[in-house]
## 1
Amino acid sequence: MLQNKQIIISTFNGYLDFLADSQPALPPEVACQVAALLTQAEFNLQTAENSRKI
């Protein structure tokens, strides 16, 4: 479980860094919301792909 949490935090921070570089005018609150949505979408896609493989 701890490993999953670290992966999620790392993914979220990666999206946050990406947004800071590509959209520097974006307010921090909005960047956090976008990063959270992108992180959630990525893990939903991975979960769906993994459930198809089983």
## 2
Amino acid sequence: MITPANRPSYSGDTKPFVWAGISLAIPSEWETGQLGEGYALLEYRFRPAMELKTAPIRGRFSFPRHLKQLTRSGLNPSPPPVKQIPPPAEWPDFPPEAELACFSWKGDHLSGQGLLYYCRQCCRATLLQFYDPVGDMAPRVLASFKDHDTQSGPTFAVYDIAAVLPEAYRLTRFAFNAGRFELVFSHAGAVVTLWRWSPADVLLARAKGHLTPIVQANGLLPAVAAQDPGHPVEQGLEWRWPNSSWRNRLGRLRTASAPPVNALRIWHRPDANRILAVGAEGVAEGDIFDRICRSYGII
């Protein structure tokens, strides 16, 4: 039930939310609640605001079957029955390659409306559910929805961080723990890892104001670079070291290409009370590492 205490009051500002190949502009007051593979729950004032579930579809797509599967996963493993409805008049128009089914539901404690969106171009199905009392934000959020052609924006934008990686790099592992985030991307044997720690002031107080103990405590450097003090960069430190893999050395002899980059950069964002770091292993082009570092920041 909407009451004066929980009635949404938005500033009008938006921020990017990008996860699992889906890009949205969401109200700046919404927060990332949970993330999983192909799954996200966004919250407003510690209540569910929007739930997203997405997956590529192989074979024939069935709206009734996939709607049943997707609505029974995530926040509501046993949701109330959904009622299919026409697209609300205030919702935006969708591209011709899209098929969609809109629905609403009402349970004892949660109610809302949503849609199952299937794109024939990229063969991806996406479920978006908007929970009352924030359903009035659905048209605004849906107008920004993209499930492909997202290269112009960040590769991911979740919680308080965002970064841009080359399109070929795929997210292979992630962990969002209290105070420590880690995302691992890979491509053709190369690996890029991004970290974020908070609160930075507490961590730096324990490390006597230095970043090196944080690097050591988290095992971010290989043995070949562990004794190197690193060289200063803006608000931080950077290490680079040679690649010890005989396969990479042999490949360079055959192709006469530049050696792959192995590097770690860590820096302090005092304005956001965060520490960020980017690690690269076997990245073929040196400017890729620098571009990722420049793109990685706080939302």
## 3
Amino acid sequence: MSAAYATLALNNPDSSENEIQEFHAITRLIVFAKESAALLDAHQTVYCLDLALEQIATELRHRADNTFEIACYLQDGATRQ
């Protein structure tokens, strides 16, 4: 069990909200890493991080989370390429 999952299990009352917050945090980390990789011209890394962002978007759509906060990260990433 990962540390993030264990933390979510302890905060069980709003488990789905906590999970979404965890996804938001992961998304911010990936966007930061992607921007850093782009500055270093690490094209393969940027590609892999784009795939990670797409998977997070898919997971959040699956969980029916259509919040603006994640959508703006994904739109910004798509327009910067």
